[in-house]
Amino acid sequence: MFDFLLKTMLFILGLCLGSFLNVVICRLPSEDQTIFHPKRSACPKCGYQIAWYDNLPLLSYILLRAKCRKCGQPISLRYPMVELMAGVLTLAVFYKSGLGWRALADLYLVLSLVAITFIDLDEMIIPDALTVPGMVIAVLASAVDPELGLIGPWAGGWLMHWGVQSYRLLSVIGSIGGLILGGGLVWTIFHIYFLLRREEGIGGGDFTLLAMIGAFLGWRAVLITMFLGSIAGVVAAVAVALREGGLSLQSKLPFGPFLALGALVYLFFGEAILQWYLG
After folding, report:
1. C-alpha angle 114/116/122, rounded to 5°?
2. 8-25 burial, b if ≥16 CB within 10 A, otherwise e?
3. Under 8 Å CB-to-CB from 214, ≥6 apart: which residues?
4. Nearest Cα to 215, choosing from 124, 159, 131, 116?
């Protein structure tokens, strides 16, 4: 019974965090608003300030039949979808990592990835306001709650052979190494493409995004995230080409959502993927 109540509370917490994510997604790219100003959300169609009882995650969307109480215009499906994603991911994070500092760090990661996905889809930008603090949180978490998965058995064994015996230090090295590799890999791809095409082929925000992912999940995650993200990106590009009748080199697709998807797959299934591949 306690286990069921705990999971229910965590799911509700995730829904509430998802409601806050909708504010972040809407306001963070805006020059006229901040996350905390104005204090109350408003209907994007008529400007009506939404009362608290019309802002309950999932429930208000259902009770209002997906329409604004004031103007009757439809409410985007994105709002409950983000809330539901946040609820499920919050539950999944605590199920995977338990109740501790590592779970809180992973929670920041997954919620940031959700926000970044929708912001990048809308605006083709990845805000440093999410990724740069994420790097700091990731490195601090690696020191407070050491995770040897950040360094991996091969690199960890090599460092231990050369005298690094502290699990905490190995964890921090793994986090910083992932940060450097993530940013460095995108930087290299950026400059190779620029040399070949004399134009930017990947956004600057992808530097910090993959660096943040590496800091949270380690250097091995950078490689798998990039691989999975590239596959997902190719599939999406083919789908767009089939729908629009062609896709040129000038066509632009945000890469952030695909990196986010790859990172989420690694977070929950990365070790199983590596064992399968290496086994």
Report:
1. 110
2. eebbebbbbbbbbbbebb
3. 175, 177, 178, 179, 180, 181, 182, 183, 221, 222
4. 131
Torsion angle in degrees (nearest 10) through CA of 254, 180, 101, 159: 140
Give the closest residue to 93 by CA, choosing from 20, 162, 10, 167.
10
This prediction has a pTM of: 0.92
- For residue 144, report the phi and psi dihedrals to the nearest 5 degrees: -75, -40
Residues 6+ apart with CB under 8 A from 16: 57
In this structure, is the dihedral angle defined by the CA atoms of residues 67, 68, 74 and 76, taken in order, positive or negative? negative
* Rounded Cα gap, residues 38 and 262, in angstroms: 34
Both tokens of residue 272? Answer: 């199983």
Residue 4: phi and psi, rounded to 5, are: -65, -45
Beta bridge mates, 34 = 37
d(CA 200, CA 234): 18
- Taking residue 131's Cβ as centre, other Cβ atoms within 10 Å add up to 22
Tokens linked to 233:
């990106």
Task: Give tens-digit pLDDT for 148-182.
Answer: 889 988 888 888 888 888 999 999 999 999 999 99
